[in-house]
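## retry 2 of 3
previous attempt timed out at serialization; input unchanged, resubmitting
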Amino acid sequence: MEQLTPALIADGVLCLLGTLLAAAVCSDLKSRRISNKLVLAGICAGCLLNIILPEGSGFLSALPGAAGIDGALAGLATGFCLMLPMYLLRALGAGDVKLMAMVGAFLGSDATLRVVLATFIAGGVLALVVAVSGHQLRRLADNLRTMLLASYFKLAMNEMPTMSAMPESAGKMPYAVAIAAGTLSCIAIRRSGIDLPWLAGALP
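## retry succeeded, writing output
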């Protein structure tokens, strides 16, 4: 029987995180909502596992193991705070912000910084794929121009710019897909040992 090493324990935790993300993606695709119960259960699980499992520097670190309750709460706060501005700009839903906070509760603050960056990249790529598949590139460009002009005029009038819905959508993408893609990409990069300085080294 294979010895239960810290790396194997971390793999099990990351598999649980992947399962929760898959459930969130299914929910978002089906109903355009992410269950609060799912997110709350994930946050509780992430915090609990970081308390009871053998200590390390985080489940996605070079020294795999629990980061403790402080690390879990720091990751939760990092995920929440980095996504909150996008919610305030109406670019994301509240469920997306809470889902990233759940990821942070599992991974800690340093890994969550990388996940958020990877999520934004994945979101941009997936949005482009949605626009191309729907033959809506022109509409996407028109929406972007309208959004930038509206933001400029609101700033000129000392108002907070928002990303309100465009008159004609270029296609909608449930953002849980991008969060899952960004998280799983970071996990795969860490596990494969691929050296991507702009992602793995540029952030703490």
